[in-house]
Amino acid sequence: MRQLNVSLFIASLVLAVLISHPSFGQSAPPVQADGSRQNNVLTSVPFLLITPQARSGAMGNAGVAVAADANAAAINMAAMAYLKEGSYGFSANYSPWLKNLTQGMSISYLSGYYRLNERNTLAASLRYFAIGEVNFFDQSQQDLGVFNPSELAADVSYARSFGPGFSLGGSLRFIYSNLYSGRFNADGQTGAGKAVAVDVSGLYKTNGYLLGSPVEWSAGINLSNIGTKISYNIGDSPYFLPGNLKLGGAATLIGQESKLIIALDFNKLLVPTQPVYDVNGHIVKGQDPNRSVPAGIFGSFSDAPGGFKEELQEVGVSTGLEFSFKDRFAVRAGYNYQNPNKGNSSYLTLGAGFRYNVLTIDFSYLAGAVNNNPLANTLRFGLQFNFGKRN
């Protein structure tokens, strides 16, 4: 039986070379689904780290403490507790992905919500990552055919307010990753990976004044993708989901006809950092990454081979601005920073939004800030339909 060479699927975990570029593996380091390159913090299903909606995408991926819209479950479900009572809506977002490297890869996000009463909100969403056509080869470079891998995550979410300034939210997520199921074998039977995860989020906000103008201060937190490991081969070792801690704050300056939002978020993956191995495969620096999920989460703050300095490098920063006029037009800008040793996925983002009656249209544009950024010129498009009372 010919053995499928899946090292780039699993070792860099997953997707960067799920593309049909003939010289890709020789010309550049592996690119993960979230657009990062060099990184010794490896996870499965990295598409879950992609910001799927256009509004936050235009603000440098910041927004964990920003007022909610129909897409908020993707970044902080707790914020949806403050949508107006009786309101409901749904949204659709779409983005071609890594189009500088391949054709046919995209991420789509569908969501809907209903504000039950003064305190409770329900939501549901579906995230779908299409990888496009992939040419498979065995170890002797014999063509094994073409496959169309895909991944998805389906969520049900709930948020509850505990007064005018504090709310909590949570999501239950089912993850399905079909990379090469039913087509090829490699040291055993392959299958689609399945996992279950949860998000837990919170939001605190208070009103005040800044330079004589009213301002709303807010702080948010989201623990996402905390769940079971995932495996593709029967008997194979499972892999961590991209557990993530997102902390942030925002200031919303309120004028008579306009609002200015300033947001700042910090992100940290809650998975083991890969150690340094010698030529015999023995760990010479760092810690063994083969741990339980709880041990991986708590150990992720102290397991980097480079010590505290490297731990700080694993913290990503997102900052963004949104200026809106008469709650009709909005312009946005942001910047996302990732250390060169931890993915080097830094970029500037721009975007805008327009609302008419129940319809809101958003788009964002990503301009790569580093040379040959695989995410450069990425576009996101979003539609929202909000009914009933609105903020």
Automatic annotation (TrEMBL):
Q: Which UniProt keywords apply?
A: Signal
Signal sequence extent: 1-25
The chain positions of domain Type IX secretion system protein PorV read 37-275
Listed Pfam families: PorV (PF19572)
**SUPFAM superfamilies, from UniProt?**
Porins
What is the protein name for this chain?
Answer: Type IX secretion system protein PorV domain-containing protein
Organism classification:
Bacteria, Pseudomonadati, Bacteroidota, Sphingobacteriia, Sphingobacteriales
